[in-house]
Amino acid sequence: MLRLDVVTIFPEYLAPLDLSLIGRARRAGLVDLAIHDLRDHAHDRHRTVDDAPAGGGAGMVMRPEPWGEALGAVLAAGRAALGDTAAVPTLLVPSPAGRPFDQALARELAAQPWLAFACGRYEGIDERVLEDAATAMPVQPLSLGDYVLGGGEVAVLVVVEAVARLLPGVVGNAESLVEESHEDGLLEYPVYTKPAVWRGREVPEVLLSGHHARVARWRRDQSLRRTARRRPDLLAALDPATLDGSDLAVLAEEGWEVVAGRFQPRSPGVAD
Ligand code: JD8
Fold first, then answer.
1. Separation of 53 CA from ligand 1 center, angstroms?
2. Ligand 1 center to residue 147 CA distance, Å?
3. pLDDT digit string, tens, across residues 170-197
4. Ligand 1: nearest atom to the Cα of 149
5. Which of 7, 114, 179, 268 sees the fewest Cβ atoms within 10 Å?
6. Cα of 262 from ligand 1 centre, angstroms
7. Average pLDDT of 86-96?
């Protein structure tokens, strides 16, 4: 069982977590999700959660008092749900300045019993909230990538989906076994289904051959070629010692060679 708490000023933004994979996991008792409205912890007439930035500048900053109270409510609610008065969550804070979210971080998070999310808006959350929270629990700022979002809610949707599907029983067994064989640092190969010809375009004949070894080799080649063309950064991170001779031959065709135990693009020759 994974306990999740999310604090946001837009609880409706998290409505997709009622659907599909996560919704099914919740109904199956594999995930326990609670959404907390930050404004329930703002006590002025207008339920204000923001104020002008200290030092001046554009936009507004989230005030610390509602956050302090909301995170206290998260601790109380989670401890009651888990029946553990000493438990603490890992507090995940979406931020463009966070650790890049990737599959390795998703695996780390899927091993935890309790995750809490603090969704900022505006110019972000007063830094003292994170300093104060860090005295009580691990705090992990995380980023979806190098582009600008308006707040943390979309990041929560992404992280919850990536983490929940790693929990035992959330995704069918067959699919998870197939996936493990492709957690090899390469991009996926292209996939096809019926009809065998569509708008004059044929399914590659090898996939209809019934020759399992040839199918596996073709898929491997496609993964390698795609990775070389689209994600040279992934190729440069691969250990060439984990590849076989056919792999190296395909990558040589794509213009990659091994130098000092790493892949690098073949250097252009010097004309004479
Ligand atoms: C949280 C407020 C917007 C942040 C001014 C407009 C993640 N990969 C990512 N890009 N952006 C975010 C993200 C953006 C957020 C908040 C996450 C809270 N904003 C602000 C500071 C500069 N903009 C993100 N994860």
1. 16
2. 8
3. 998 666 656 555 578 999 999 999 999 9
4. 11
5. 268
6. 35
7. 98
Q: In one letter, which amino acid is 233?
A: D
Does 53 score more than 60 pLDDT? yes
Residue 211 in this model has a pLDDT that exceeds 80: yes
pLDDT value at residue 182 = 53
Mutate to test the pocket of ligand 1, among 49, 92, 148 (most ligand atoms within 8 A of CB): 148
**Which protein residues touch ligand 1 with a CB less than 6 Å away?**
94-96, 98, 120-121, 123-124, 143-145, 147-152, 155
pLDDT for 196: 98
Q: Which residue's CA is the closest to the ligand 1 atom numbered 16?
A: 151
| Cα–Cα distance, 228 to 240 (Å, whole number) | 13
Please state whether beta strands 90-100 and 139-143 pair in parallel, antiparallel, or not at all (unpaired). parallel
Distance between Cα 121 and ligand 1 center (Å)? 7
- What is the percentage of the chain residues whose pLDDT exceeds 90? 94
Residue 10 Cα to ligand 1 midpoint, Å, equals: 15
**Is the pLDDT score of 2 beyond 90?**
yes
Average pLDDT, the chain: 96
Q: Name the residue among 144, 119, 125 with its Cα closest to residue 14.
A: 119
Letter string b/e over residues 136-152, b meaning 16 or more CB atoms within 10 A of that residue's CB: ebebbebbbeeeeeebb
pLDDT for position 236: 92
Going by alpha carbons, the residue nearest to atom 17 of ligand 1 is: 95
